[in-house]
Structures are given as structure tokens and as C-alpha cells.
Design goal:
alpha+beta, two-stranded parallel ribbon, 7 strands
Length: about 200
Amino acid sequence: MSIGACPVYAFGYESGQQTYGVTLSSPSADNPSWQARAGTGFDRAHFLVDWEQQMVAGPMGKQSISGLPNTSPKNGMMWEVRFARKDGTPCPHRAQCTRAKQELRLLGLQAREQSEALQAARQRQTTADFAQQYAPRADIESTHAQGIRRCGLRQARYRGLARTHLQHLTTAAALNVVRLGEWFAGTPRAKTRCSPFAALKAA
């Protein structure tokens, strides 16, 4: 069983599968760090986390020296990891890890379940299987948007589940009639619109 978009996709992905047998088919947000955007830096995926010991191994194999609770948990990070100056300062790959001139890399980590689910979700959405499974969502969303624009689908005209269900059926029938009319008239399909957010992300 699979469902569409969910704002807590990465966090509910594993628990949803284990508890309910449901797979949330929706992309998770890309890593916003400059290291990930540059494609040449060391982002979170390059660090190996030992959750039992609360230790982290850096890309060059150096071990962290401390793991402390995050002082600002509102950003979703539960604890912070620091590395020794003797390891980070002379490292030849320092520029790929941090842009700070003096301070070393400070790595923020979420709780284990959330962190592992997010990494698994980001890895999964790069596969061909995910793209094939996610493709039908575009058709569903276009139908839903058309129902909202032309038939006021967001609001029910009547009270009660039975009457609301009848409205949904008549709305679906009306959309089929509209599409048949456009097909017989030879109306070309509109091009897929790019959302302002997608345009900003591309820029």
C-alpha cells in the first residue's frame, strides 16, 4: 500500500512500514547544506555514525571527541558532534568540510530513527523504481487541481457524508465530460507548469 505526499515523509517512512505496512511515496527535501549543493564537499552522508557510542568517524577516518545535546533543538538536531583540532586543522581536505577560518566542523545530528529514515529516503528517491512509482502522482494532482478550479472541490455544498459523496461522484463525472469535450474539440494539452518554488530551486 502506498499514499501520496506527506510533510513528515522522512520521519514516518520507517515507522509507517513497520507499524501499518504503508509506504509513503513522496520525495524528501534535499540536503540544504552547501557541501551537498556543491557536490564536492563532505555532507552528512560522508560521516559514519556509531549511535551506541555516540561517536562519529569523519571522511578521513578521524574520530569525534565529543557528542553533546544540542542547545537549540528547535532546528531538529538533537546533539552536536565536535572533532579535535589536531585532526581537523592540518587536514588537507578541510576546505571541503568547512568554510570557517578557525573553527572546526560542527556536525548536527537528529535522533537516530529520524536520521536513518531521512538518509534512506534520500537514497531511495534517486532510484528508477521510485521515479516509476511516483510518476502517477502527477496525473492525480492535475485531476485534483482541475476539480478545485472548475468545480469547487475543496468545499461541500451539502451536509452529511452521503450527500458529500454524491457531490464527489458528480464532480468526477463532470470532469470526464469536460475532458471528452476538449478531446473532441482537439484542444492541445497544456504544458506542465513550473511552481515558483521549483523555479527558485533550479535558480
